[in-house]
Specification:
heterodimer; A: mainly alpha; two-stranded antiparallel ribbon; 9 helices; B: mainly alpha
Chain lengths: 213, 196
Amino acid sequence: MSILNTLKKLTYAKGVRILLNGVWKDNPAFGMVLGICIALAITNRVENAIAMGAGVSFVLVATSFIISSLRNIIPSRLRIITYMLVISSFVIIVDNLLKAYFPVISKALGPYVGLIITNCIIMGRAEAFAMKNNVLYSALDGLACGIGYTSTLILLAAVRETLAFGTVLGIAVTPAGWTNWVVLAMPPGAFFVFSIYLWITRTIAKIETDCGG
Amino acid sequence: MFTGVITIFFAAVLTHNIALSYILGMCPFISLSRNMKTASGMGFSIIFVVTVTAMINWPIYHLILVPLHSEIIAYIVFMAVIAATVQLLEMIMEKFFPVLEASFGIFLPLITVNCIVLAVSLFMVLRDYGYIKSVFFALGTSVGWTLAIVIIAALREKLRLVGDVPKGLQGPGITMIIAGTLALSFIGFSGIVGIK
């Protein structure tokens, strides 16, 4: 009984709620439909998805941390440009780390690493959460959104890579004689797989949009 | 020279369409494609901002950052230029073209965080274009994006008249399916003109 009570208390603790929200209810990709340019463009291979997910998560946590610790000094008129400067600095770090240690992935991702700057998730979390909450909770929120986003990227990439190339992380997974669905590695495939993903997750999570058609 | 420029323009509009083959600029693509009027309004604002920022970013990168060996801060500089340009445009429009401001004004703040503005500057640096080529590449890219969003908006308007879309698929989901079909048909253009 006491264990159950502790568990119950834990679920209502703010930290856990933030984590759950970020990963499921407010999942950046299907809940808020943010940052999908990257989610669609680089998910043709699982390795790209992992690298991009890690990069976005790092920038999210670091930006939330910095913005939250500066939240009382940032003038509200200059806040957008402040977000931009902080985000750009961390993206430059990610870009150079990838270039130095994973040159092949860095080449495959190309300009999309730089485009993390304009990924609306990061600015969205800075504006909606980090400006109003303390440092610890903001970093946690960044981490939760990062996990939610990365899991979406890996899932999409796994489906697309399996069907389009018959491999996951370069290891063959499909039976012999499998015909590759090459179209899934191309942009139309990205759109189709993502729309099916949206359909399934939004039906389960019961998210409805007011916009018709 | 002249044919090179024309080739780049058409390649950016049709064969290398930024929305349908690089999948960029998706946020407004989904949220603003509900009707033709907003879609074309956003499209024209994008054409303007993308072309102007490319015109400013090229000399800054090649005449200031490269001689000083500080290409590493290019991202910060590009973002600052984009934010400043958008702000300036907003002020100029407010002062001299209030009618235009009333119809386009709401889109301008959104453009700062639109990926295609930054993407055009990054592609222009990566592919090592000259000044004239960069300007035409920027123009072509933004015209291509506008073309794609206007087509999607038109299809969504038609769909609303006849469509019976499942609940989970409404909004972003169905827009993605339309975009996928459109991307498939744009593959038909490939091979007409090449980039570079």
